[in-house]
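Researcher: Sequence recovery benchmark, item below. Answer with residues only.
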């Protein structure tokens, strides 16, 4: 009997050691979580990879271009974080919600329409966590416009203050609007944390370094973001003012399916004049080749 008792004790001890070792190994295998980010002492701009769009030849032609003129038909889908000494601003929120990306670890896919498919392999949430932020930590958020490929994670930021134009809010919940997905932003419809932007330029932090600028046409409340960085200089995040750089260099008319083609053309002319006058660089958000060269988070521009 004592021998059996000792044997049971030895087996129990061995099993406990094995379980402790396995749990320790599991913890070691998990990626380290970054400490909560301290308030930034400078203005920083982080670029996140929020996926890509595969575009067919027919899709390219919608922008009054040929495949030969474009060369690279794919479009990037970036998201951006501006870290400012007075708070943070998320700009553009991806094409497939994080919850769907989590459910498909090999990469989430979605069809936007007959000409464009989206692919996302990393969650926005995980990229924020890598630099010490949670969606709940973000002070403000805004998107250039509410189309599906710019608003997918809006519900994640429902606790933050939304910077929104009335025309875009009306567009978001308009009947029979196939270019949006209201399920992406159900948490915003009755939000009380909203700042209504009713003028051409809105100074987010009150010091002129982060400004939202009106550029309607692609959608009724389409807008661009200007960030004045100490080392990098002035940068404008274009939203969908252009999709391919060749639209700009070859002076092609806006796509026929803009909310207002004439207004979009007028916004392009106005923005080009603004860029020249203020010596601001334009970052075309969907420009796949240019986006591939940008530093991605956790690196940043300042």
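Model:
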């Amino acid at each position: 009997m004592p021998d059996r008792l000792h044997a049971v004790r030895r087996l129990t001890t061995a099993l406990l050691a094995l379980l402790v070792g396995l749990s320790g190994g599991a913890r070691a295998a998990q990626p380290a979580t970054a400490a909560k980010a301290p308030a930034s002492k400078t203005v920083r701009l982080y670029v996140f990879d929020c996926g890509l769009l595969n575009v067919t030849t027919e899709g390219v032609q919608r922008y009054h271009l040929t495949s030969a003129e474009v060369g690279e038909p794919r479009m990037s889908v970036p998201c951006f974080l501006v870290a400012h000494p007075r708070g943070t601003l998320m700009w553009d929120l991806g094409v497939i919600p994080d919850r769907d990306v989590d459910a498909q670890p090999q990469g989430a896919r979605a069809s936007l329409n007959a000409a464009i498919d989206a692919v996302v392999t990393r969650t926005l949430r995980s990229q924020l966590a890598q630099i010490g932020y949670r969606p709940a930590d973000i002070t403000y958020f805004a998107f250039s416009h509410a189309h599906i490929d710019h608003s997918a994670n809006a519900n994640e930021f429902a606790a933050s203050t939304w910077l929104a134009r009335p025309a875009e809010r009306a567009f978001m919940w308009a009947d029979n609007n196939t270019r949006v997905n209201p399920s992406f932003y159900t948490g915003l419809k009755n939000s009380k944390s909203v700042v209504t932007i009713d003028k051409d330029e809105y100074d987010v932090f009150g010091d002129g370094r982060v400004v939202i600028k009106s550029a309607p046409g692609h959608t009724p409340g389409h807008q661009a973001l200007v960030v004045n960085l100490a080392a990098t200089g002035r940068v404008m995040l274009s939203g969908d003012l252009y999709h391919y750089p060749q639209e700009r260099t070859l002076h092609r008319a806006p796509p026929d399916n803009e909310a207002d083609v004439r207004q979009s053309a007028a916004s392009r002319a106005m923005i080009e004049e603004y860029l020249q006058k203020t010596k601001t660089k334009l970052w075309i958000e969907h420009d796949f080749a240019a986006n591939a060269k940008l530093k991605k988070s956790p690196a940043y521009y300042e």
